[in-house]
């Protein structure tokens, strides 16, 4: 089982590294390879894989419960490998867009990896590993663009997709040759008890809604963060980039110690309070007139985001049914992706209608509403 867990986590890191390191360079790729393509379209290219994944993940999750979780995870890695190859071979903007769509349609390694882990782990162990998986993705989010950026001047970045295809391809091969891990979920245990719904206190459908709202509330602030700070606080792109990454660094630093204090029994309370902390951090950022208050807001937001994601992981583990783990994590990741898509649309609309800070205020309202809703249901 340790081998299976190690290969699953490392395989997801490889896939996440490959998928997350390239989006910041889409504008550069368009300029290098498709000179007639407007750089303003880079934002649309950024959305394509997310939208495709939002549609595909729940469908792949349902199929996983039929064909087997391990087979589905191998499929996700090899699907991502194929899509990277096709993207790297693109000769026109339309082929590039098609390759990005295929990354979302054929991938889904995060949901498939989580479902695979849920097939032989449960409860606190599963929740802890789900947090490790999120840490893996955030590490890839930082390391990937930094490493790829070193090749920007020497290499055609579009061709780097061909090299990146090796990572999920190799992960799929390793998983193929690993033996099927033995399930530790008691076979004679009733499905409702095994799912932990009584402990978690909420249904899976409610958790999906919580995930979507929290994602919208945080991702709303991403698209215009750098330009907002440049216009409102006159900060350089370098400082804005560092402040943007601060909450994600805090996740890597705080997830392990905080995870010990968030259990299934207190996960809803933790989600409500950490959503409130995230809201307070965003409020400070919206009101900030200098870098000091803004940095404090980012720190508070990082603490809140970390606790909220850990609580969602605990609730995800508590609402998992062994027989439908693929569908469960496919739907959960689908909710996350749809939240990101809607956040991008809302942010663009608000920024063009009002100003670059407007998405922050809507994010505050959504997270405050989520806190009030959870607390009202607990009373």
Notable characteristics:
mainly alpha, Growth Hormone, Chain: A, 79% helix, 379 residues, single chain
Report on the structure:
There is one protein chain. The chain is mainly α. It folds into two domains: 2-177, Growth Hormone, Chain: A, CATH 1.20.1250.20; 194-378, Growth Hormone, Chain: A (Up-down Bundle). The protein has 18 helices and no strands. It has helices spanning 2-20, 26-33, 42-67, 69-88, 93-106, 109-118, 123-149, 157-164, 166-177, 191-195, 197-200, 204-219, 225-232, 237-259, 267-287, 291-318, 325-353, 358-378. α1 runs parallel beside α7 (123-149), α4 runs antiparallel to α9 and α6 runs antiparallel to α7.
Count of extended strands: 0
* Helical amount: over 70%
Distance between the termini: 41 Å
Q: How many domains? A: 2
**What radius of gyration results from the CA coordinates?**
20 Å
Output the CATH topology of the largest domain.
Growth Hormone, Chain: A
The quaternary organization reads as single chain
Mean pLDDT: 85
| Gross morphology | globular
Structural class: mainly alpha
- Helix-strand pattern: HHHHHHHHHHHHHHHHHH
Number of helices: 18
**Proportion in β-strands:** under 5%
What would you give as the CATH superfamily of the largest domain? MFS general substrate transporter like domains
Uncertain spans, ≥5 residues at pLDDT below 50? 187-199
CATH class type of the largest domain: Mainly Alpha
Largest sheet: none
Which architecture of the largest domain per CATH? Answer: Up-down Bundle
């Amino acid at each position: 089982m340790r081998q299976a867990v190690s290969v699953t986590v490392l395989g997801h890191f490889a896939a996440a590294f490959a998928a997350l390191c390239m989006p910041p360079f889409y504008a550069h790729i368009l300029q290098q390879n498709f000179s007639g393509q407007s750089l303003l379209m880079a934002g649309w290219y950024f959305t394509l894989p997310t939208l495709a994944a939002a549609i595909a993940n729940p469908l792949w999750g349902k199929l996983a419960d039929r064909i087997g979780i391990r087979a589905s995870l191998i499929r996700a890695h090899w699907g991502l490998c194929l899509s990277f190859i096709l993207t790297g071979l693109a000769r026109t903007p339309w082929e590039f867009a098609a390759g990005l769509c295929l990354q979302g349609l054929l991938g889904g390694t995060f949901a498939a990896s989580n479902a695979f882990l849920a097939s032989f782990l449960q409860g606190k162990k599963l929740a802890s590993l789900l947090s490790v998986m999120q840490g893996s993705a955030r590490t890839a989010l930082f390391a990937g663009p930094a490493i790829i950026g070193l090749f920007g001047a020497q290499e055609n970045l579009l061709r780097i997709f061909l090299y990146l295809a090796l990572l999920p391809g190799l992960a799929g091969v390793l998983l193929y040759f690993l033996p099927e891990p033995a399930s530790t979920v008691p076979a004679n245990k009733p499905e409702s008890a095994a799912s932990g719904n009584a402990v978690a206190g909420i249904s899976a459908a409610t958790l999906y809604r919580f995930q979507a709202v929290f994602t919208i509330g945080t991702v709303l602030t991403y698209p215009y963060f750098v330009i907002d700070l440049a216009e409102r606080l006159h900060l350089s792109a370098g400082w804005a980039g560092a402040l943007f990454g601060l909450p994600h660094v805090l996740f890597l630093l705080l997830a392990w110690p905080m995870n010990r204090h968030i259990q299934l029994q207190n996960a809803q309370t933790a989600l409500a309070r950490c959503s409130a902390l995230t809201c307070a951090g965003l409020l400070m950022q919206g009101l900030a007139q200098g870098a000091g208050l803004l940095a404090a807001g980012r720190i508070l937001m990082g603490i809140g985001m970390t606790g909220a994601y850990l609580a969602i992981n605990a609730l995800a583990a508590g609402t998992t049914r062994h027989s439908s783990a693929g569908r469960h994590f496919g739907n959960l990741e689908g909710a996350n992706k749809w939240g990101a898509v809607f956040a991008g649309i809302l942010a663009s609309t608000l920024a063009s209608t009002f100003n670059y800070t407007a998405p922050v205020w809507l994010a505050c309202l959504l997270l405050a509403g989520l806190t009030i809703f959870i607390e009202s249901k607990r009373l």
